[in-house]
């Protein structure tokens, strides 16, 4: 019998499926629930247990992990009928790894505490590739003791694992992460169009740029997307649009100016309005091409 905690995993999307599978590989007993039948089949093939509802998934869990798109989905599965607060055992540790507003995380922790449920906000960075390779960066908000308890589990999912402060701090750092990523992708996209219009060998140019101060994880991960115009979603424009809204609102609340971020937020929004929301966020290249008359 395993001495590892029993895990309930709610949300088996692009990130949630490989992350839950990495927990199974690490020896955890994982029971999962999602709304997509094919993702439940995938979990079963990986050795997990399929649950037909949130209530069924969390009933016997020691740790509950949620990985869903945004604050409304988190609130629905936590507070709604048949939800986590209604069916989880007292003393369970709820880890929300979704990217949501800091205020939602703070409210969730306070409400769950009344029910005897401990909460960590633990959003991640690294995209689908980082989830598959278990090299995610995990930024955590919550109590130190709860963080220490969850750390072995986090170590099965990521490489950089840091408690950033109290409840909501993880989401605040994730918002900053999404700001940096969006502006970086935009800069890379502009460079690609500039290089191509100048007649430079793009492959050679991106290789040498990535070896210098202009190099970044974004360029390393997205270089082939730019070269091949392959915008298969690892992280969708729709989700980055949501995240840019989070960081814009949070920055306004604390009085921080985001001049570059505001421009990129509008470019992300324009892509979404033009029907590109389901594409990878590297599709910011398409916006630059349109502005440059190249598409």
TrEMBL record:
<dbReference type="InterPro" id="IPR006398">
    <property type="entry name" value="Tartro_sem_red"/>
</dbReference>
<dbReference type="InterPro" id="IPR008927">
    <property type="entry name" value="6-PGluconate_DH-like_C_sf"/>
</dbReference>
<dbReference type="InterPro" id="IPR013328">
    <property type="entry name" value="6PGD_dom2"/>
</dbReference>
<dbReference type="GO" id="GO:0050661">
    <property type="term" value="F:NADP binding"/>
</dbReference>
<dbReference type="Pfam" id="PF14833">
    <property type="entry name" value="NAD_binding_11"/>
</dbReference>
<dbReference type="GO" id="GO:0046487">
    <property type="term" value="P:glyoxylate metabolic process"/>
</dbReference>
<feature type="domain" description="6-phosphogluconate dehydrogenase NADP-binding">
    <location>
        <begin position="6"/>
        <end position="164"/>
    </location>
</feature>
<dbReference type="GO" id="GO:0008679">
    <property type="term" value="F:2-hydroxy-3-oxopropionate reductase activity"/>
</dbReference>
<feature type="active site">
    <location>
        <position position="174"/>
    </location>
</feature>
<protein>
    <submittedName>
        <fullName>2-hydroxy-3-oxopropionate reductase</fullName>
    </submittedName>
</protein>
<dbReference type="GO" id="GO:0051287">
    <property type="term" value="F:NAD binding"/>
</dbReference>
<dbReference type="InterPro" id="IPR036291">
    <property type="entry name" value="NAD(P)-bd_dom_sf"/>
</dbReference>
<keyword id="KW-0560">Oxidoreductase</keyword>
<comment type="similarity">
    <text>Belongs to the HIBADH-related family.</text>
</comment>
<dbReference type="InterPro" id="IPR015815">
    <property type="entry name" value="HIBADH-related"/>
</dbReference>
<feature type="domain" description="3-hydroxyisobutyrate dehydrogenase-like NAD-binding">
    <location>
        <begin position="168"/>
        <end position="287"/>
    </location>
</feature>
<dbReference type="Pfam" id="PF03446">
    <property type="entry name" value="NAD_binding_2"/>
</dbReference>
<keyword id="KW-0520">NAD</keyword>
<dbReference type="InterPro" id="IPR006115">
    <property type="entry name" value="6PGDH_NADP-bd"/>
</dbReference>
<dbReference type="InterPro" id="IPR029154">
    <property type="entry name" value="HIBADH-like_NADP-bd"/>
</dbReference>
């Amino acid at each position: 019998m395993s001495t590892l905690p029993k895990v309930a995993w709610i949300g088996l999307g692009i990130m949630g499926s490989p992350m839950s599978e990495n927990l199974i590989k690490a020896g955890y007993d994982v029971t999962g629930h999602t709304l997509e039948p094919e993702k439940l089949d995938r979990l079963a093939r990986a050795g997990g247990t399929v649950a037909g509802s949130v209530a069924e998934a969390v009933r016997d869990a020691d740790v509950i992990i949620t990985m869903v798109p945004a604050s409304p989905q988190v609130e629905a599965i936590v507070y709604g009928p048949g939800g986590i607060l209604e069916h989880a055992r007292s003393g369970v540790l709820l880890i929300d790894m979704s990217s949501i507003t800091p205020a939602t995380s703070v409210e969730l922790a306070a409400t769950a505490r009344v029910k005897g449920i401990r909460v960590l906000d633990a959003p991640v960075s690294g995209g689908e590739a980082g989830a598959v390779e278990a090299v995610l960066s995990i930024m955590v908000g919550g109590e130190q003791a709860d963080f220490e308890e969850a750390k072995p589990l986090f170590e099965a999912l990521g490489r950089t694992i840091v408690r950033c402060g109290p409840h909501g701090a993880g989401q605040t750092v994730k918002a900053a992460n999404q700001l940096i990523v969006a502006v970086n992708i935009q800069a890379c996209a502009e460079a690609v169009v500039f290089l191509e219009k100048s007649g430079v060998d793009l492959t050679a140019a991106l290789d040498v740029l990535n070896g210098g101060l202009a190099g970044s994880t974004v360029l390393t991960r997205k270089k082939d997307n730019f070269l091949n115009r392959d915008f298969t979603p690892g992280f969708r424009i729709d989700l980055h649009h949501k995240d840019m809204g989070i960081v814009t609102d949070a920055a306004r609340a604390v009085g921080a100016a985001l001049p570059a971020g505001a421009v990129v937020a509008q470019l992300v929004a324009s892509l979404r309005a033009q029907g590109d929301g389901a594409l990878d966020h590297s599709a910011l290249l398409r916006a630059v091409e349109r502005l440059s008359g190249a598409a």
